[in-house]
Design a protein that fits this description.
The protein has eleven helices and 25 strands. The protein has 417 residues and is α/β, with parallel strands linked by helices.
Amino acid sequence: MTGLVVIGASYAGIQSALSAREAGYADSITVVCDETWLPYQRPPLSKDFLLDVTSEDNLLLRDETFFKKERIDLDLGRRATELDPGAKRVSLDNGTTLDFDKLVLATGSRARQIAVTGADLDGVCYLRSVTDALDLKARLAQAAEVVIVGGGFIGLEVASSAAKLGKKVTVVESVTRLLERAVCPLVSNFLHDMHLAAGVDVRMGESVVAMEGDNGRVTAVTLASGTKLRADLVLVGIGGIANDDLARTVGLKCTNGVVVDEHGRTEHPDIYAAGDCANHYNRFADGWVRLESVQNAQDQAKAAGLAIAGRHAPYDAVPRFWSDQYDAKLQIVGLSARHDRTVMRGSEDDGKFSVFFYRGDDLIAADSINRPGDQMACRRLIAAGVSPKPEEAADPSFDLRPLVRATDKANVARRNL
């Protein structure tokens, strides 16, 4: 008997399976994953896992008993090699095939490789999986001088972890500020200063042109400026590429990921995609985006799971992101690219502040450092299209909660109509 087949045991893969089951999908569900690990959390890999604050067991999303109870079969250590949409069949690398009524592509993304001489030396690492994290943790224990290529979320989180472990850390970033595409200059500068205070050497506007080694192991990183940085460990974090190969091979529309609608459905009515591998129209971006975040993976997968079960609740969540570095929790809600005005709430000196982004009079996003209350409020306000005046947002004595409560009451009233 055919049923639902999910390719990928990521947040999106597991959530789509669970949402379909919870919504009443009664047929078989099989999740295929090319890793042998039970489905696990990825965000801790660059932080608590490297620092031994959390263990491999604590990374698991659910245990085997849970999946058996939900009648979800895990086919681990197997890679999907071919997809036949017409026959509705998936071929695996062990020669077996799976027939499906519905299929979810939750294949995630892979690390972008750096294309310089010496990039294949031992000690040049990437971080995407728990296998990568185990390798990186073992190498960090032996390393003294660590070079991080890329000042994005992964790079800065690993830099923070390595600095806490007492390593000499250098971050190399080709643009003019950290997290340039994700946060505003004020937050970038705050994080920059925080890393400097922790002893991290941050090189902005620099690019790597080569890596040198001895007996096959990396020993140095050469920058375009001619500077040579000693390194016995290099972590490359320069972005991700959507794993949309299966979809591309069979002609499904792909543009920086598998193109899907608000229910996660591709051009094929029985094939869905969700998470890092999917590109969707997002009203908060006013355009098509591929979001790499746990929130997007879970919420998009819920929409796909519901649609698979015959229930339909379109994905319309406000995008959210977060990052933990040292004692700072960075949280982002909304997409700020189209803003034309910003106001600050809180105190940078206290290490607790938010930057609210406006387009005209509309609040469209907020970056926060150690102000989770602002994030909770902005998430609900942005979703409802309700905005405090900029001068109100900038006034720390102005209470956002009544505005949020009024928004919640209005939403309840609309649902009861």
